[in-house]
Amino acid sequence: METVRNTDKQIGINIDSQLVKDVKNIASGDIEGLKTEGHIGSAIQDIKGVGEVANAVDNVKKSIENLKIATTKSLEGNSVDGLVEDYAGLIRNQELGLQSKRNSKLSDALDKMGNTKDGVLLAESELESIARDAIAVNGLKGEDIEIAFYNAEDGNMGGHKDGKIYINMAYQDGSNERLMEVVGDELSHYVDYKKGRTRTETQSNNAITDVSRGYGNDASRQVRGYMGNDDGNREDFQARMKSLDFSETNQKVAATEGMENRTEIYLRKLDLPSPGDKAGHLFGKVTERKNGQPDYHFSLEGNVKGGEPKLNTKAVIDNDNAAFTNGGIMDQQVIEPPKGMSQSEFDELVIQNSQKYDTKAPQNQYPVGGVVGGPDARNSNTYVDNVIEESGGQIKDFGGLKAPRQNSGEVQEGLINKTVDTKYGAKIVWDKLTNGGKNTDVLKAQRDQEKAEALRKDRGFKD
To answer: What is the pLDDT of residues 399-438, one digit of tens each?
Structure first.
C-alpha cells in the first residue's frame, strides 16, 4: 500500500493508493460514493488524538476535497508535479490550516510577539515546528527548517534562499490567514529546493502561472476553511511591530541576492509569416508589488498599416496572457535591478517609464507590418527593450528573427554619446590646464546628465 500521510499526531490521516486511483468518483465530486466504499471509514480509524468525531470527519472530508482538486487538475492536463505530489502540496497546506485553528502555542506566541525580542524568537520557533510537520507529507522528515521574520517595506511578502524562509512583517496584519499565505508560498520553494526541482520563469515569476503563489493562495483558502474569515487588525499589529528591532535580519535580507525578482519579460509567438522561427512579441510584467498592489502588465499594440501605436490595450494584454495557457511563450527573462537600486525602486521605475513612452513621437511611430522601414523603425519589441534599458536594467537579445526590431532604439546611441563626450572632453581638458581640474567632477556630472537626457529623448520617452 502506498501512503500519503500527514504526520501530525492530531491528524494522522492515511490515504491509500486506491483512493488516489479513484479518479472517477473524485472528479465527479462523489464524496458520498467514496464513503460507501469505506475510504472515509478506514481513514477515520487512523486518526489519533482527535476527541470529537465531527472534527475527525471534517478533517478527512477536507483531505478528500483536496484530492478532488489535485485529480481534476491532473485530468485537465494542469498538474504541476503529478497527482500524488500535487495532492501532497495541498495536504501540506491543510496542515497549516488545521494548526492555525488548533495550535494555541502559535497563537500565544504571535500575540506576545510585539512585547519582547524573545517573543519574536518564540513565534519563529513555533512556526518552524508547524512547517516541519507540514513538509513531512512531501517525504521531508526531521528537517532543520529555519524561518526568520524581518520588517522592511521592500515590496516582498517574504522570500526563500538556500533552505531559509524569510517572512516580512511589514505586510502582515496579525491574521493567521495572511501569515499562512506567505508560509504556504515559501514552503513550496523550500520543498522544490530540497527535492532539487527547478521551475521555469513562467512557473516561478508570473502572476498567472506561478506555482508557489498558487500554493500560497491555497494555504489562505484552507486557513479560511478551518477558521472562517479573519481580516486581522493591521493597524494594531503594525504598531506592535514598531517596538521591535529587526535590523539584523533586515540587513541579511537586503544583502541576499536573488531572493525575489519580480520584473520579467516574455516573448510570445505571433502568427505572422517570417523566415525561420515565428516572429515574436515582447511584453513585460511586474508582480508581487508593494502593499499588495495589483500586478502590472506593459505591452504595445501596433497597427499593421503603421502609425501611432497604443499602450496596454485590452486586446494586446488578453493575447499576451493567453500565451501562458496555449503554449505561446517562446522565451522569457527575469530582469535584475541595477546595482544600488532596490527591487521595489526598480519595479516602480519600470512602470513609470512604460507609461511615459511617447506614442506620438515621430521616432516611435509603428512601421508597416511591424517590421518594414529603416534601421531605426520601432515596434513593440523596441518599446519593451527601451523601457528596461531606460530604467537601468539589462535585457538580453532575444534574437533578430524571434524579436525583430528589439534594438532599433539604439541606432543613435553611439552618435549621441560621442557628440556629448566630444563637447565635454574639450571643457574638461581646458579646466585641467587652466584651473587645475577643480571643476572636472562637476563637468563630468553635467556630461552624464546631458547624455541621459539626450538618450531618453531619443528613446522616445516623455519628461
So the answer is: 877 888 898 888 888 888 899 999 999 899 998 889 888 9
Place of cell 473524485: 26
Same domain, 319 and 246: no
Distant-in-sequence contacts of 406-412, Cβ < 8 A, 24+ apart: 406/282, 406/381, 406/382, 407/382, 408/375, 408/376, 408/377, 408/378, 408/379, 408/382, 409/376, 409/378, 409/382, 409/385, 409/458, 409/459, 409/460, 410/385, 411/375, 411/376, 412/376, 412/458
Residue 8 scores a pLDDT above 80 = no
Asked if residue 358 and residue 240 are part of one domain, the reply reads no
**Inside any domain, residue 65:** no
- Count of CB atoms within 10 A of residue 236's CB? 12
89 inside domain: no
The model's pLDDT over 336-393, given as tens digits with 9 standing for 90+, comes to 888 778 777 888 899 999 999 999 999 989 988 777 888 888 899 999 999 999 999 9
| Domain extent at residue 157 | 103-209+225-260
Structural domain tally of the chain?
A: 3
Q: Is 250 in the same domain as 295?
A: no
pTM of the model: 0.55
| Angle CA 4–19–143, to nearest 5 | 5
